[in-house]
Structure formats: C-alpha cells, structure tokens
Amino acid sequence: MAAMDFSDEINLLTEPLITLCKKVKPLGMKFRAFVKANIFDDRQAEAMAEAGFVELNTGVECLPKGEIVYTNNGPIPIENVEVGDRVVGTAWDGCTTFVKVTEKHFGEKDSYKVVQTDNSILRCSSEHRLFSLDGSGVSEVRAGTLCRGTWVAAVGHIPLIGRKVHDPLLWRFLGYAIGDGTIDATRGLRITDETIENIFAYQRLAASLQLGPATIFDERPAKNSYTLTYKLADGASSLAMQYGVSINQPMRKVPVEIFEATDEEVAMFLAGLFDAEGCVTKDDRLQFSNSSRILVEQVRYLLLRLGISTGAMKQLYKTLNGTKYTWFKFQIRSKESIHKFNDFIGFWHPLRSDRLRECLARFESRSSSSRSRRRTTCLPLSPRFITDWLHQNKLSVSTLQRKYSISLGSQVCYGPIKNAS
Predict the structure, then answer these.
(1) Taking Cα atoms as reference points, which of 75, 118, 66, 68 lies closest to residue 301?
(2) If 86 and its partner were Cys, which of 98, 144, 240, 353 is the partner (CB 3.0–4.6 Å)?
(3) Which of 35-39, 158-162, 278-282, 316-320 has the lowest mean pLDDT?
(4) Which of 334-338, 378-382, 383-387, 395-399 has the lowest mean pLDDT?
C-alpha cells in the first residue's frame, strides 16, 4: 500500500480540506499530513479518517523552554531535543513506548502553569492536551480550559523493555559511587559515607567484582565520616571515570547506558544511589537528595521505570561557614510506591532497612485500623462514583490513596489541579 505526505498545514480552511478528502478517497492510499492543531475539529477529523489519513503531525508549540522531556538518553530540556531523537510517548491508558522525533518547531505563545496537588508543575501553552477524569470517564482537555479541581492524568509507570548492559551488581557499585563519590586525575576514586556498614559492604562488593583493592580512612572521627579510596589505576576508578563520577558534585548525572538497560539493572543502580543519598524520614516517607539537579531529576525518571511515583522536586538552601549551598530533594509518599521500593530496591544498611520495614508496618496498621472503622466503605473503580464520592466527602485523590489504600491506575495516576494560571 502506497503512502503520500502532505507537509503543509492542510486544515487552515475546512471546506477545501473536505473537498480534498473526497478527491483522494477513491485512490485507496494511506496519507500522512501536517495540521494546525488549535483549529482541528471533529468535522475535519471525520473527513480525513474516511479518506485514509492515518498519521497527523502538529505544529502547535506546546511546551516552553526548560520543560523536561523523557528520552532514551534520560530527561532533557525540550529545547535540546533534536530530530531523530526518541522520546517517551504515553497514551491515556498508560501504554508507553519510544517514538521518533520527525520535526521540531519554535514559536511564541502564552505559557500556562498547571500545579497539581503533589506540587508537581507543568508549564505549557493553552493548546497543550492533557487527559482528564470526570463523571463521563477519560477525555482530552486543553490546558487553557483547566480550572481548579479538574482531575488530570500524570505518568505513574513507564514500562519499557530494556537490554542487558552490565552485571546488575556492577550498576549497584556505580550508583553508590555516583551518589557519594568523587574522582580526579591524581587521587583516583574516593567514596565518603557517614555509615561504616555501607563502606564495608561496598568494599566487599568491589572486591567480588575484581575492581581492585581499597583503603578505608576515618577522616573525621567526630562526625563518623569514612572514605573508601581506590588508586587511579584500579578498575573502580576507571569505571567511575567512564560512567560519569565527577569531581564537581553539582555536575553528577546518571550514565546514559542505564536508561535503556533492563529493569533489574535499573533497580540495582537505584539501590546504590539510595544507599548513598536516600533515607526514611520521621513521617514515613522515602527521601532522596543531592546537590546535582540533573541527577535528582534523572532518578525520578528511573523510578517511573519501576512504577514508583514521587512528589515534586524541591530546591533547598543552607549556609555553612559563610558559604551558601544548594541541593535538591524529592520524596516517595504513597504506600503503593514505598512497597514497590521495598520489593525492587531496598537498603543494604541495616538501620535504614529496619526503618523501611517499620514504615511499612505502620502503613499496614493504619490501613487495618481504617478498614475496621469503615467496614461499609467500599469504592468500586468507577470514575463517576469516585468523583461524586470525593466531592461529597471533601477528599483529594492523595487522601484517597493514602487513607484508603486505593489506586486509580497502575500506570496512569490522576490528581486534581490545585491551580491553573
């Protein structure tokens, strides 16, 4: 079957478009076309579908400079996406895959800021399309029509089939080295941690991977700071230099190779990172923090590979000895995501591992107590029923998930809009 391309915006006038569709329909061919999305309507769509148009491209500039796009090389600002790159595309039902970028357009449009209840922010044009959940089910909405209280879909899982790159335990060591390590041309790889248990564990892991002998220094006894060092000629140092361990901490980032690796490799890499920079907070949340904004954003993306959703990234400041430091953090809050973290990633440090188990036990205790108090409350997963029930009880979707342990989807999660301006 032959195919024909229409590279211009052919729907600027509806009647000429319909006339064109009537003329090309008898050809029995498949067509691709470029359309102007903000004037594309149901009448045009019906005529083009009947005529054999199977693919439409749009030139509406949806996202402003700086907005993050997920690609096969990790999350990058949209202005850095080039023709030929592969980006993650997600349908309303949560189906995700890499799609090839065929064209790139620039323009100037009013920018909208959409803030969800988890404080995540999307900046986009008024024509940017989102999926909404209301009494009639799932439907497309334009950002310009959003208002406070509208439910929109956010990505909760990016299920991709990866390819094996390295031994998963090698990725775990790399994750730990990127999180807590630095390297330079004279001293080699140095990994500093406040917990001697982690230092010993990763010394043994590196030895089992034949990455060279290590030396442990107690650099600051008063603050329990320990350093694991490898000479420049050791395999650990060579590996660290190859995969992005930096002497400049704010420049840390995830190795490109991990983005298309298997889920097992991703999980082990994240385990090393969380051993270095993760913790369980007093209010039963998992937290990851680092001075590298890029690294923190990339870790959030990798967690989505495993179906673990996070809260928004926050920027924090502190002053030490007259020097101002900046770092970034996010938290994993939902019971479902914390359970997945425990199943797929976990901690090697015994104290953190115990805190994680205690956190999950408290989740189960609260859920059990809630079920015993509300035995008659049973929420079927009907969009209309859920919407009405939330409005009647003045609850948010986050409360629904946290208090009643109900998830609205395994790959797509819905949250109400807190603000749209």
Answers:
(1) 75
(2) 98
(3) 35-39
(4) 378-382
The Cα 288–Cα 330 span in angstroms is 6
Neighbours of 127 (CB within 10 A): 19
Measured CA to CA, the distance from residue 199 to residue 421 in angstroms comes to: 48
Question: What are φ and ψ of residue 259, in 5° steps?
Answer: -70, -25
- Per-residue pLDDT of 316-326, as tens digits, reads 888 777 788 88
Tell me the C-alpha distance between 267 and 410, whole Å.
18
Amino acid at the residue 367: S
Scanning the structure block, which residue is given the tokens 């208002």?
147
Q: Which of 419, 273, 418 is nearest to 346 (CA)?
A: 273
The distance in angstroms from the start CA to the end CA of the chain is 47
Q: Which tokens belong to 270?
A: 């994240």
pTM over 0.90: no
